[in-house]
Amino acid sequence: MTTDPIWFTPPPRSPRVPEAPPERPRERVALTVDGEPVEVAKGATLLDACRAAGREIPTLCYLETLTPVNACRICVVEVEGARVLAPACSRRAEPGMVVASESERVRTARKVVLELLASAVDLSTAPGLAELMARYGARPERFGAAAATVAQPAKVDNELYLRDYGKCVLCYKCVEACGTDAQNTFAIAVAGRGFDAGISTEHDVPLPDSACVYCGNCIAVCPTGALMAKPEHDLRAAGRWDESRQTRTDTICAFCGVGCAITLHVQDDRIVKATSPFENPTTRGNLCVKGRFGFEFVHGRG
Amino acid sequence: MFGAGGGTSSYQEIEETDCVLLWGSNARETHPIFFHHLLQGVRRGARLFAIDPRRSSSARWAEIWAGLDVGSDVALSNTMAREILAAGLEHREFVEHATSGFEEYRAHVESWTLERGERETGVPAAVIREIAHAFARAERAMICWTLGITEHHNAVDNVLALINLALLTGHVGRYGSGLNPLRGQNNVQGGGDMGALPDRLPGFQHVENAPLREKFERAWGVAVPPRKGWHLTEMFEAMERGELRALYVIGENPMRSEADQHRTRRLLEGLDCLVVQDIFLTATAEVADVVLPAAAGWCESEGTVTSSERRVQRVRRALPPPPGARDDLEILFDLARRLGRDWGEADPERVWNEVRTLSPVHAGMSYARLEAEGGLRWPCYDEQHPGELFLHSRFWERPVVGPRAPFQCLEHSPPVDRLDEEFPLRLTTGRRLEEYNTGVQTGVYRSPVRRGETLDLSPEDALRLGVAEGERVRIRSRRGEVVAPVHVDESLRPGLTFMTFHFPEQVATNVLTIDAHDPKSGTAEFKATAIRVDRLEAS
After folding, report:
1. Are residues B145 and B100 in the same domain?
2. Are residues B175 and B252 in the same domain?
């Protein structure tokens, strides 16, 4: 092999930089958001258009890496001439649309959605929800103490993560991440209807009896902390979880050659959580069981 | 391949290809996030064909699973090539312009009819034909492989066999077409790129190529040995001969990971001096004369690693190492100082910048760019160069730039450890999703799916042997024996068995494996051991 000239000398530089075939130029769509003209590529959503216009649209069930499921209705906007409010995350922008991103009707809808969620669901570990409630003046207490809730004991059936469905807003993100959008394991789905709907394994079996492979990609997308890795849960339960004392360092996972970006959350010189950035082109926020949970060996030495 | 040892494609391309041959790889479990990209490709319509003795969890996603006999990869490649030629599906223009040795190759594979291929590989002729046609007809097609190709006594031939198919069909050097080995550790690629090979200096520059070597000698101010060194297996042979008396092992656990473990132990214990630098007191460290506790490279030190798509990325220190453990770089610099060489400050960026001055394919990758751009793929020749999305586009220039890619005439060579009446079962080894190598890093976390080591048997063999799930059996090879519980696995065909080497303290699988190895790469034939299985009370 080594005497073969093609192996003996590094290959010559390609005269042209290899590139992906050019994308077909996409038509532009012109519309107005809050009276401001905006242009987006054909196929873009109203969320894209609103963001392009500098508007901040709240989302719960939406994530760039997942297919929109229109579950939460927090992102609704008003489209002139339309009978009902449109979910910005999935409604495509059309030429000439006149969109109001923060009209009274929109604000009322978001307020009621938040109130319904907060009256029924424990949102205590949902980052950003308190700010959102304040922004829209949501008062869940107005439904009274007798309002129905989804309160239920947390499911603790394995050593890696737990499922506290009293905190679940049924955004479907975990189902999407477990399904076709990322992991393709299909361990969970929505079971039941109406108020009794919930995320469930097949026949509601414990995780170890399900198809779950413990990648934790559901935990990564959960917006409320209903799904939580055990170390974080235990530290919170002990009152020792303190994000103000945590550092986040981006590095590369050591368990295979794919090169997954991994963010290590470190508190008091211990890794307390591993995540991956959603914008990373290799992982899109996903990891496998080793990357997400396998870091404990670091602390088993010395 | 073709002088640059790395996968030719990027991950984004596998989402936009039309056909994938996943050959000797269970990427679903061993490279899960790569498999996400692969599945995106499948969902967009790519045809996936799994070529693997086991109907693995990856193969379950394939349109067709070709369950070839262990070690018949060259035979399958030759047969596919012959069928592609017989059907006139070769990429004539690419073959004419960019390759050499085609006529000899055509003549060489001529006898590999579908019937002969079926006989030698165990794959039905119609299946070989279907896969060959799909691969050749696809607008874009890729071959991805892992150790099912390389852990054989003819590892290099197996890789060349895959290259032959890509050359024949023009599936290399274009967007969405390529040849991609999936790397097993986070810096297997980078280690090779940096010259941690017996014949290479950083950037695939051959140590026996005088002008290239002299460049390094000038930069380092020392003479570089002008002959290539030993690869791992040759090192053990040199120990056997008494020529290699001292060994410095960094981050490797040969006592557990090498084939034929009894021999490994004897050779390591017989050394004059064994130094082990590791993050754990491994089984190898336990027999060392000197142990140097090291920081964990991926989270306790600064540097770079290189992924299977050639992307150089930064690793960063997230926390301090335990007391007494030190950064690899600091240890090496200190050692140099004790040996009379002052290399200055052990600063990873300084070292990297030296790499950039000596390895042209890394020249453009400053730390600042690696930070800002989330890593860069080599080759990246200067600070303006974006890094190459895919390799070898030069083959599509007219006339071709640089040397042509040679076809190789390859002989089918079955596994060294032959099956016979005494050892009638084929044992192949590999990884499982939740575990990693010899288990020193993954044995700690509490995986709900961990079930320890098992001997995985086909339902037919379990029935024939009269053994039940969980029953402990004696497994013997020509080199040793172990006891392990049985797990009945429907993904195995009769005659094929499977074990991992994740739980060496429970079951020392590598007592069984053969150290027959590839003379070119030094890789041992972990994938093909002849064994017999006996019930405990019967033996």
Report:
1. yes
2. no
- What is the per-residue pLDDT for A1? 39
Q: Note whether B11 contacts A: Cβ–Cβ < 8 A.
A: yes
Same domain, B298 and B192: yes
Structural domains of chain B, count: 3
Tell me the per-residue pLDDT of A167-219, one tens digit each, with 9 for 90 and over: 999 999 999 999 999 999 999 999 999 989 999 999 999 999 999 999 999 99
Work out the average pLDDT over B412-426.
96
Mean pLDDT of A20-39: 94
B160 and B209: one domain? no
User: Three-state secondary structure along B482-519?
Assistant: EEEEEEECCCCCCCEEEECCCCCCCCCHHHCCCCCECC
Among the partner-chain residues B313, B317, B320, the one whose CB lies closest to the CB of A252 is: B313
Per the listing, tokens 């890696």 go with: A160
Contact residues, A window 9-48, toward B, CB-based 8 Å cutoff: 9-21
- What Cα–Cα distance (Å) separates residue B254 from each residue in B151, B504, B526? 15, 12, 13
* Helix locations, B138-247, DSSP H: 147-150, 155-169, 188-193, 210-220, 232-240
- pLDDT tens readout for residues B229-287: 999 889 999 999 999 999 999 999 999 888 788 899 999 999 999 999 999 999 999 99
Is the CB of A301 less than 8 angstroms away from the CB of B313? Answer: no
Choose the closest CB to A288 out of B33, B212, B394: B33
Q: Tokens standing for B482?
A: 């172990």
pLDDT confidence band for A302 (50 / 70 / 90): low
Q: How far is CA A163 from the centre of its chain?
A: 16
pTM score > 0.90 for this model?
A: yes
| CATH no. for A161-299 | 2.20.25.90
Q: Which residues of A, range 94-133, sit inside 8 Å of B by Cβ? A: none
- Closest residue of B to A299, CA-based? B322
Least confident of A2-16, A166-180, B516-530: A2-16
Any CB–CB contact under 8 A between B389 and chain A?
yes
Do B126 and B225 lie in a common domain? no
Domain boundaries, chain A: 25-143, 161-299
Residue B308 has its nearest CB partner, among A7, A208, A258, at A258
Task: List, in order, residues 6 or more apart from B130 with CB less than 8 Å away.
Answer: B64
Q: Does domain A25-143 have CATH number 3.40.50.150?
A: no
Residue A295, chain B, CB below 8 Å: the answer is yes
A27: amino acid identity, one letter: E
